[in-house]
Design goal:
Layout (H helix, E strand, L loop, with lengths): L10 H12 L5 H13 L1 H22 L4 H25 L1
Helix pairs in contact: 1-2, 1-3, 2-3
Length: 93
């Protein structure tokens, strides 16, 4: 993606590193370049805003735990599939 405007840091380079920036894992130099670019480039800023929202939703969803009864049903189903696979493998021998 490129907005067509000249920037110190190209749009493609910023968008490649935006996840590091969002996760606060970008080094200081990249962080400054990305922040400056986003301040002056509306298309990248819109893309960044969307990515930020998605990451917040994922982070929030990953913290929630499944209800105990659902967890038990899933574990039971996994065990049933394992038994079925063992039975199929036994027949194949």
């Amino acid at each position: 993606m490129s907005c067509g405007e000249p920037h110190e840091t190209p749009c493609d380079e910023v968008l490649e590193k935006v996840y590091l920036y969002l996760d606060q894992e970008a080094d200081a130099e990249d962080k400054d370049h990305i922040r400056i670019h986003l301040d002056e480039c509306a298309p990248c800023l819109r893309k960044y805003g969307l990515e930020q929202v998605v990451m917040k939703l994922v982070a929030r969803s990953c913290k929630e735990q499944a209800p105990a009864d659902l967890r038990q049903r899933v574990l039971l189903k996994i065990q049933q599939v394992r038994v079925d696979l063992e039975h199929v493998e036994y027949r194949a021998d």
